[in-house]
């Protein structure tokens, strides 16, 4: 019975395996693996993991774990608030595979639905903050503030200072992350209570919190003006819901606004995943970190969405990148966007006013009973002075099922939110042992100077989907525009788009996981801690490392955490001069950027003709300055899709001069159960749970990037962002356990598969890649292979020769795959003019064969162009993708038929995917940057005139 899930997760059965082995020319699966994986790294020990369990038992066990969590009423605040996820959004977006299995929209023609949703998010942020351009989400508020600080330092050309001034009333996790990044990012931090003092000196930037962590609301206009007069730029970390009633940062003169969109319908999730936001004034849009959705046009001139300014992305710019954001929180940003669409401006304001009135009611009753309210102006959070009774009050509230914030022995903070009711306020008042007998007359109101008067969310999209029927249809319409894993194989190399099983996904919506505040008392999160401890133990066993931290909430953050651990380790030994990070050209694209952002200097190591690291060049680079070598960052198997046999030599060479070995876990799907990086030379690795361990990509996030280390680096793993211990290592994320809310997915996957199942998954992933490589080899050149002629779990198809002969590019092939109903492989990475293909273990033989047959058919189409049968510009490859509107038009002047255009394969006859737009002009979108929802008439005027005469139907 336990093996049943393994058979559901792995798409090929024993009969398929024999057929595929025959094609590859190997007798047995074990023999294939033994040939592919070098003996120097190969392990044959069994993984010491619990045995595989069936779906019912795993779900029962997760129910038992969840039962140890206590989802109290959460009134702790500090950037995390309970909210109501509308059921229509939870069921049809958050829990829908058409949304959560989608990949980052690098192929925009098949991503128009999620791009429109993200554009809604950007428009919502722009209008609430009153700033010109917003990004498509960042990882969390604390790291978003850090990104804003780095942006201010880059953009402020008038100020030579390297110091940023941060208000002491910022969220404590923000202060912790900012201080932790300051050293490696080469800026200094001055923290001061700007309500009472303004330190002397020059600052390139100032960071304010609105409302403050204490709940205080103030008019930030004078502080912003003072900062500007001193030559500083200003970032305001603003609560998004409050901006419906309070003056927005843009109207007060701020340059940048950042914050969290969590309270727009995204569950607490014990700290994440939550979408952060960033918005900037005019002139800063091309410096924005992270992803940006823009409006361009397609080949017909119709409006079309795409990721704008993609060349800013971390994996493209490598060591020139200015941001550590490679992943975003697209799925959660889309939930927040649709929350705004569903409620509209009136609904959001009503929620905000209700939240504020509850806070006013509580403050009034407590003040009437004699308690001092520290701030007369607040939005949702009040700070109450209680003179030594704070612990008793918080304890009484917890006994009644309500969590309040213990600030210190003399102060308690209470945060109201969307789920607060009058009955809850009554219970809180009782916890304070307050009577309703008035000791003194008191009232609280916000002055006009801080109240918003401007309109917001005026675009029709925020007024058109009020009913559940309308919202349901809008979500369906958007998802129908996209290609996600629920429709087709996504053969993206290095991205591992495998099955995200429904049984793994289901628990994340349970209240015992979804409704837990990250600062809830330890006795309320026993279940979460058990699940986290299990995962840390299991991942350490799988990787061969000694310790694991689950805090990094993206692969990029995991890289940064690992490199910061290396840096701190060297500094603890007095090796402050070690600042060189060696990075092979075959390493993952984010590595170089992370090294620079960790304060290291990148030295690139060449690739040998066989695709492996050029060991001779490595020796030369090491010998040039051995005392400066801090680390080498390897990706294993490399992004060339090869198990490099010399990896042991590479590790030994770096270790011999005192350097550390970082092994990127992006391709761990080719190692699980076969080799352990912590045992064949690695000192540290980050893992991508959204790749190897089944957390879905969600259209570009959420991700989880745990960092695993050997024992000597363990003291330098990320620290708790709420810790008061100055000796604790710096955190890299706002929440101690990062995106804890989606960890049940990985826990369930490992429990369902067991050690044997995980090994089988790895073996079949390697078999599938070699089957594709061998099947396509007569038609396309496979760029790299190991010494035995085998690839790892992915292969690179080289189209450069075909391009020289025919003019057809790898991009043309990627777009033509859309007509066949496929998402394209990874385009032009790591080698330009190529496609990197990774089938994973989850695809069936039928789907793999359909992809192979499609690529062979496209090869024949390229031959037609090369032979002159089809002119290049009017070939189906250059014209791809073809829309329904195009092939049903009255005029058709292409040298190929409409059927070839739209139905090139008979496999599509019963399930045709129609792209909503033709090929998109990326250059136009970048030159004419539009990053908010276009007016409806833009779509009306762009459509071809419809002929409605009787003759048109004859």
From TrEMBL:
Domain Glycine cleavage system P-protein N-terminal: 7-432, 454-719
List of residues that carry N6-(pyridoxal phosphate)lysine: 691
NCBIfam families linked to this entry: gcvP, PRK04366.1
Family membership noted in the UniProt record: Belongs to the GcvP family.
EC number: 1.4.4.2
Keyword Oxidoreductase: yes
InterPro entries documented for this protein: GcvP, GDC-P_C, GDC-P_N, GDC_P, PyrdxlP-dep_Trfase, PyrdxlP-dep_Trfase_major, PyrdxlP-dep_Trfase_small
Protein known as: Glycine dehydrogenase (decarboxylating)
Enzyme class, broadest EC rank: oxidoreductase
GO MF term (any one): glycine dehydrogenase (decarboxylating) activity
Entry function: The glycine cleavage system catalyzes the degradation of glycine. The P protein binds the alpha-amino group of glycine through its pyridoxal phosphate cofactor; CO(2) is released and the remaining methylamine moiety is then transferred to the lipoamide cofactor of the H protein.
Pfam family, one: GcvP2_C
Subunit details: The glycine cleavage system is composed of four proteins: P, T, L and H.
């Amino acid at each position: 019975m336990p093996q049943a899930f393994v058979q559901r997760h792995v798409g090929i059965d024993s009969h398929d395996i024999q057929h595929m082995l025959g094609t590859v020319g190997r007798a047995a699966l074990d023999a294939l693996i033994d040939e592919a994986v070098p003996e120097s790294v190969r392990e044959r020990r069994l993984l010491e993991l619990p045995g595989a369990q069936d779906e019912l038992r795993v779900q029962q066990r997760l129910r038992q774990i969840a039962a140890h969590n206590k989802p109290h009423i959460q009134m702790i605040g500090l950037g995390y608030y309970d909210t109501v996820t509308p059921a229509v959004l939870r069921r049809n977006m958050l829990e829908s595979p058409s949304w959560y299995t989608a990949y980052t929209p690098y192929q925009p023609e098949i991503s128009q639905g999620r791009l429109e949703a993200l554009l809604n998010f950007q428009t919502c942020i722009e209008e609430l903050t009153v700033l010109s351009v917003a990004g498509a989400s960042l990882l969390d508020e604390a790291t978003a503030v850090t990104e804003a600080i780095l942006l201010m330092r880059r953009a402020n050309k008038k100020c030579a200072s390297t110091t940023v001034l941060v208000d002491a009333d910022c969220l404590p996790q923000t202060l912790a992350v900012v201080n932790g990044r300051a050293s490696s990012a080469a800026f200094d931090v001055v923290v001061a209570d700007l309500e009472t003092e303004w330190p002397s000196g020059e600052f390139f930037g100032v960071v304010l919190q609105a409302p403050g962590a204490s709940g205080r609301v103030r008019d930030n206009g004078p502080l912003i003006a003072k900062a500007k007069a001193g030559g500083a730029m200003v970032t305001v970390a603003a609560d998004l819901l409050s901006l419906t009633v309070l003056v927005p940062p843009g109207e007060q003169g701020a340059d940048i606004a950042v914050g969290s969109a969590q309270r727009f319908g995204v569950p607490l999730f014990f700290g994440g995943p939550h979408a952060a936001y960033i918005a900037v004034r005019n002139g800063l849009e091309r410096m924005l970190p992270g992803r940006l959705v823009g409006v361009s046009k397609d080949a017909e001139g119709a409006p079309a969405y795409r990721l704008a300014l993609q060349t800013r992305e971390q994996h493209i710019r490598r060591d020139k990148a200015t941001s550590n954001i490679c992943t975003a929180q697209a799925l959660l940003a889309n939930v927040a966007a649709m929350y705004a669409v569903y409620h509209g401006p009136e609904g959001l304001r009503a929620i905000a006013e209700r939240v504020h009135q509850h806070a006013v009611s509580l403050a009034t009753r407590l003040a009437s009973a004699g308690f001092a309210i520290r701030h007369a102006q607040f939005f949702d959070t009040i700070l109450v002075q209680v003179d030594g009774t704070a612990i008793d009050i918080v304890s009484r509230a917890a006994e009644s099922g309500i969590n309040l914030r213990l600030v210190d022995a003399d102060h308690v903070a209470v945060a109201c939110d969307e789920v607060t009711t009058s009955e809850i306020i009554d219970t809180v008042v009782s916890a304070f042992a307050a009577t309703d007998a008035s000791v003194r007359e008191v009232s609280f109101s916000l002055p006009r100077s801080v109240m918003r008067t401007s309109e917001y969310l005026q675009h029709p999209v925020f007024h058109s989907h009020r009913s559940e029927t309308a919202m349901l249809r809008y979500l369906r319409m958007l998802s129908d525009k996209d290609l996600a894993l629920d429709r087709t194989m996504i053969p993206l190399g290095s991205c591992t788009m495998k099955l995200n099983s429904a049984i793994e996904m289901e628990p994340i919506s349970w209240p015992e996981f979804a409704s837990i505040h990250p600062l809830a008392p330890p006795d309320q999160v026993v279940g979460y801690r058990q699940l986290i401890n299990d995962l840390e133990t299991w991942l350490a066993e799988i990787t061969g490392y000694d310790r694991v931290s689950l805090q990094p909430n993206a692969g990029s953050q995991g890289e940064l955490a690992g490199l910061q651990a290396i840096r701190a380790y060297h500094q603890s030994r007095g090796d402050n001069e070690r600042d060189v990070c060696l990075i092979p050209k075959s390493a993952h694209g984010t590595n170089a950027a992370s090294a620079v952002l960790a304060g290291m200097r990148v030295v690139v190591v060449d690739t040998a003709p066989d695709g492996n690291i050029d060991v001779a060049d490595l020796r030369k680079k090491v010998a040039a300055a051995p005392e400066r070598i801090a680390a080498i960052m390897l990706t294993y198997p490399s992004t060339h899709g090869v198990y490099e046999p010399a990896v042991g030599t590479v590790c030994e060479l770096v270790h011999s001069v005192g350097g550390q070995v970082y092994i990127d876990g992006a391709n761990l799907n080719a190692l699980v159960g076969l080799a352990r990086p912590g045992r064949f030379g690695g000192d540290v690795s980050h893992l991508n749970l959204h790749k190897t361990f089944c957390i879905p990509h969600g259209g570009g996030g959420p991700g989880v990037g745990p960092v695993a280390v050997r024992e000597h680096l363990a003291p330098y793993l990320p620290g708790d962002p709420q810790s008061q211990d100055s000796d604790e290592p710096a955190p890299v994320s706002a929440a101690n356990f990062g995106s804890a809310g989606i960890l049940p997915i990985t826990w369930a996957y490992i429990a369902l598969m067991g050690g044997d199942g995980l090994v089988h998954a790895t073996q079949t992933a390697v078999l599938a890649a070699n089957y594709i490589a061998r099947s396509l080899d007569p038609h396309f050149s496979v760029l790299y292979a190991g010494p035995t002629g085998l690839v790892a779990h992915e292969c690179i198809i080289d189209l450069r020769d075909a391009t020289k002969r025919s003019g057809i590019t790898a991009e043309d092939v990627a777009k033509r795959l859309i007509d066949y109903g496929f998402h394209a492989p990874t385009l032009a990475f790591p080698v330009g003019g190529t496609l990197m293909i990774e089938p994973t273990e989850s695809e069936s033989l039928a789907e793999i064969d359909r992809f192979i047959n499609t690529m062979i058919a496209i090869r024949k189409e390229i031959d037609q162009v090369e032979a002159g049968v089809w002119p290049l510009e009017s070939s189906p490859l250059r014209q791809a993708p073809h829309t329904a509107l195009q092939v049903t038009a009255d005029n058709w002047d292409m040298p190929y038929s409409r059927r070839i255009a739209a139905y090139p394969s008979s496999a599509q006859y019963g399930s045709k995917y129609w792209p909503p737009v033709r090929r998109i002009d990326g250059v136009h979108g970048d030159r004419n940057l539009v990053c908010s929802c276009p007016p409806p008439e833009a779509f009306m005027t762009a459509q071809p005139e419809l002929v409605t005469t009787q003759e048109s139907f004859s």
